[in-house]
Design brief:
With about 280 residues, the chain is α/β, with parallel strands linked by helices. The protein has eleven helices and ten strands. Strands 3-2-1-4-5-6-7 form a seven-stranded parallel β-sheet, with helices on both faces.
């Protein structure tokens, strides 16, 4: 008899958690495991997920990244819709990824009677820049949700130490499983750098500083822009490329305008040509 797994995540953007979901969905032996994946709408990796023939994919539009009291009703509807799917599918394991889906998905799994609930921490839903009251609320919700969680997975020692320090889980409850990276696309690049620069609207002689990251608080992109401003004060010919997107895009755009460096920083959005850009 196959083990049935329901994997739950928000948008399938180009990020580490989403890549992990793809790798697991593709890599688990379909002779041993039956898999379903529940996601929110959109994301650059959504077509790649939908193309995996041996899994079934469910979209819950209410499963999004918005946080705060204004999203409570939407979150409640997401829990009900995910619970309905899980009750119909009856998986033995629910495995959640990303902070929002980790909360909503685990409670939906609990309410639907899934016997084993696992959550992977690819990071936490707050950073040191958040107000202390927001952090306390978030940690409180994580602690309560931990009570219905069978097992925790972290992708780094730092995440494990943070989770223990916040009182979310103890070391025996947690497994460290690092995310794998396929290096072959990076090693085998045959690239005309001049042509690539021109494709991006750059001059072949431009000096470039780049970063690849989701536009989320934990990535500290404000520090990247602070540094860009200091560098440009001394080396005004430098150009900065930011590859990625996310909830902080409006704030980052405002910061770029405040610094007066609009012509020196390009926001390229989500891209599939990361090996070429690097």
């Amino acid at each position: 008899m196959k083990i049935k797994i329901a994997r739950i995540i928000t948008r399938m953007d180009l990020g580490g958690a989403q890549k992990a979901v793809l790798h697991l969905s593709k890599g688990l032996d379909p002779a041993l495991f039956e898999q379903i994946v529940i996601t929110g709408e959109g994301g650059l990796l959504l077509p790649e997920l939908a193309a995996i023939q041996h899994i079934r994919h469910f979209v819950v539009s209410e499963l999004n990244r918005q946080i705060g009291f204004q999203s409570s009703w939407t979150d409640f509807k997401a829990i009900l819709k995910i619970r309905k799917i899980l009750r119909s599918e009856r998986p033995q394991i629910a495995h959640t990824h990303t902070p929002k889906a980790g909360i909503v998905g685990r409670w939906a799994a609990r309410l639907s009677g899934v016997p084993r609930i696992i959550h992977t921490y690819h990071g936490f839903g707050f950073s040191e820049s958040h107000p202390s009251w927001q952090k306390r609320i978030y940690i409180g919700i994580e602690r309560i949700t931990a009570l219905i969680t069978t097992r925790f997975v972290v992708v780094s020692d730092q995440n494990r130490l943070k989770g223990q320090a916040y009182g979310i889980f103890s070391q025996p409850q947690c497994e460290l499983i690092r995310s794998g990276v396929d290096f072959s696309p990076f090693r085998n690049q045959k690239l005309d750098k001049t042509q690539k620069k021109m494709e991006l609207g750059l001059s072949p002689s431009d000096m470039i500083v780049g970063i690849v990251a989701s536009f989320t608080p934990s990535k500290g992109l404000n520090y990247f822009l602070d540094t860009a401003k200091k560098v440009l004060d001394q080396l005004p010919c430098t150009l900065f490329l930011m590859v990625g997107d996310g909830e902080l895009r409006p704030q980052l755009e405002n910061r770029i305008r405040e610094f007066g460096i609009e012509g020196k920083v390009k926001l390229l959005g989500w891209r599939q040509d990361i090996p070429e850009l690097l």
